Amino acid sequence: MWIMIQAPTAGARTGTQAIERAVLVLREVAMRGSVGWDLQELAARCELNRPTVHRILRCLVEERLVEQRASDKRYLLGPLTFELGLSVPVRPAFLESVRQAVQRLARKLPKMTAISALRSGDDCICVARAGPSAGEAAALRIGQRIGLLSRASGVAIVAALPVQEARALQARSRRRLAHLGAEHLSRAEQQVKVGRQRGYVLLTDGALWRGVHVLSMAFGPQGAPVGSVSIVGWESTWPADAVPVLLPLLRETADALTAEFNPP
């Protein structure tokens, strides 16, 4: 199941370097969605030389895993990734349960956005969203792939990991997500500590995004979170007593999804 992908190991294993590099390139292409990458940017991001990345991309384009947009020559995910995804046994019933749970939560909070993201290694992918937009910085698009420490949805997942696993992930993320800035990552790591103690992550105005408040909670087996569910709202719609008002609704949703998830 794709949401249970383990974090990448440090260093290439003998005989698999070419495959690992191709997967790295493919994963980074997925991170940019419809924006895409130009060759030089992608090579720098992957910390590989330009000719190597060009060779990998040429092969991926031939196999339709990546495509190059004619208008600006930027690289995006290709149609074969979608076609292969249709064949993966990804527990469609569970994904449908997530979507329905998010919709139910949003109906109870008409001025706020409810979202859910599932873990994929050091990243998470938004699989459900309902309600009005509450700032594109925090309310993810369905299908969007992001680093766990880049949004509250991911921070809540990291906070639910065992301490040593979370620390290792944070160490990898400091380099991989360096473009977010040291201040952002420092705040995210502090929220991980607080979230571990509380059992949820609460980001108020100025914590990570100006004017946007987020309440997030992980769900899944103890110590092995599958994903998170979040409530997102503008400061003007956020209740003064947010935790006692919103937390029971969030916990009810997270507990229901935990009960429905059966690991393979």
TrEMBL record:
Keywords: DNA-binding, Transcription, Transcription regulation. PROSITE patterns: HTH_ICLR, ICLR_ED. SMART domains: HTH_ICLR (SM00346). InterPro entries: GAF-like_dom_sf (IPR029016), HTH_MetabolicPath_Reg (IPR050707), Tscrpt_reg_IclR_C (IPR014757), Tscrpt_reg_IclR_N (IPR005471), WH-like_DNA-bd_sf (IPR036388), WH_DNA-bd_sf (IPR036390). The keyword Isomerase does not apply. One of its GO terms (molecular function) is DNA binding. Gene3D superfamilies: 3.30.450.40, Winged helix-like DNA-binding domain superfamily/Winged helix DNA-binding domain. Transmembrane segments: none annotated. Residues 16-79 form the HTH iclR-type domain. The keyword Manganese does not apply. Pfam families: HTH_IclR, IclR_C. GO terms for biological process: negative regulation of DNA-templated transcription. Residues 80-263 form the IclR-ED domain. This is MarR family transcriptional regulator. It comes from Alicycliphilus denitrificans. The lineage of its organism: Bacteria, Pseudomonadati, Pseudomonadota, Betaproteobacteria, Burkholderiales.
